[in-house]
Design goal:
alpha+beta; 130 residues; two-stranded antiparallel ribbon; 8 strands; 34% helix; 22% strand; single chain
């Protein structure tokens, strides 16, 4: 009588732990941004790869601004190379500081991003491409 009861308890524990681990460590559907909602949280973008990563990146303070990289190599590149801290606004062609940019996904298929100077520039760009 004790053996079947013990097996049931062990199975319940295994399934519970598995469920918890899967929900904590595996990316969930809500980590995929809705392209229509546009703006991405800056800390979820690797600013060297210019890609939405879905999880928080390493913060990289430079002066009074905060940038983000996905690995130690990206952190080093952001700290030491201005090129990785700036992008071009696709609407205006102006230089944009990635730390303060309005960041959006290029498409649902691709996790690469655009950096805009403002939400207004993004909306103009979006209306001109539709």
């Amino acid at each position: 009588m004790k053996k079947p009861f013990l097996i049931i308890i062990i199975l319940i524990i295994i399934f519970t732990v598995g469920y918890i681990l899967a929900n904590v460590f595996l990316p969930s559907k809500n980590m995929e941004p809705d392209v229509s909602s546009a703006k991405l949280e800056t800390e979820l973008v690797c600013m060297v790869n210019d890609a939405f990563m879905g999880i928080k990146q390493f913060p990289v303070p430079v002066g009074d601004k905060m940038y983000y990289g996905c690995c130690e190599q990206c952190v080093d590149k952001i700290k030491n190379n201005r090129h990785f801290r700036y992008a071009m606004d696709p609407q205006t062609g102006a230089e944009v500081d990635k730390a303060s940019a309005f960041i959006v996904m290029k498409s649902e298929k691709d996790h690469s991003v655009y950096y805009f100077k403002s939400k207004d520039n993004y909306l103009k760009f979006q209306s001109s491409t539709n």
